[in-house]
Amino acid sequence: MVEAPRPTETLADIASRTDRSLETVRGWSKTSTWPAPAGRVGRAHAYATADVDAWLTRHILRTVPALQPRRLYTAAEIERATGIKVSTIRSDVSRGNWPAPDDTSQRAHRWYGHTVNSAVANRHPYRQSD
Questions:
Q1: Closest CA to 85 of 54, 123, 112
Q2: Are residues 39 and 13 in the same domain?
Q3: Alpha carbons 94 and 77: distance in angstroms, whole number
Q4: What's the pTM value of the predicted model, to 2 decimals?
């Protein structure tokens, strides 16, 4: 039998469910946008699961953009499609956290849509604010 989702969960529950460390989830909970506690479980704060899911969707989970796989995109176009800043893309390329450009024949570095989709899908993002 599949267990029904609980209406509230502790930080430890959230860490387990999201496959993140408890320290990471504690960090999230200290941001000004984190949901207010909905109660307690023992000594721990409990948070409404629906509120946590909404927060995760806004701040952590990044949907893969609908980019055309064989079209080349500049970093500025990628920023508009994904919300990942041009400076972050450049920094991540230099650190090996973003794939190298697929095309460097023109002045702007460009990536194929399928490269961007793969990079975004494998990314472990955290946005501090909206």
A1: 123
A2: yes
A3: 19
A4: 0.56
